[in-house]
Design goal:
Layout lengths: L2 H23 L11 E4 L9 H4 L4 E4 L2 E6 L2 E4 L5 E4 L5 E4 L1 H7 L4
Antiparallel strand pairs: 1-5, 2-3, 3-4, 5-6
Length: 105
C-alpha cells in the first residue's frame, strides 16, 4: 500500500475522532414545534398572499423580491418558501430545507 495513502488515511481517521469528540461535548437540543405561515414563491409576486406582500419586512426592487432583516437583505428565489415566524419575523427557506423541517397543518 502506498505510504502517502496510508498517512492520509490515518490523518482522516484522527479528524473523524476529533469531530466525534467535539460532537459529544455539545449539548443536544430539539426544535420546539411552532406553527408558522408560509407561501412558496412561484416567480410572480402578484400571486403571493397579501399577508406576505403587505408584511413590513417584504420588499421588491428591479431584481425581484427580498426580505429586509437585521442581518441584511435576503433575496427570495423562485421556489423558496417565504415563512412568517412566531414573532412576526420573515425569512426565505429553500424547498429542500422547508420539506425537512415543516409539515402542513
Amino acid at each position: 500500500m502506498d505510504k502517502s495513502f496510508r498517512k492520509d488515511e490515518m490523518m482522516l481517521t484522527e479528524k473523524v475522532k476529533t469531530f466525534k469528540k467535539m460532537m459529544e461535548e455539545l449539548e443536544k437540543y430539539r426544535r420546539k414545534p411552532n406553527i408558522v405561515h408560509s407561501a412558496q414563491y412561484t416567480g410572480d409576486v402578484d400571486k403571493l398572499p397579501d399577508e406576505i406582500k403587505n408584511h413590513k419586512m417584504f420588499k421588491t426592487d428591479k431584481e425581484g423580491p427580498y426580505i429586509e432583516t437585521l442581518e441584511g437583505n435576503m433575496r427570495i428565489s423562485k421556489g423558496d418558501f417565504i415563512v412568517i415566524g412566531i414573532k412576526d419575523d420573515m425569512f426565505p427557506v429553500k424547498p429542500s430545507i422547508f420539506k425537512q423541517n415543516y409539515t402542513k397543518e
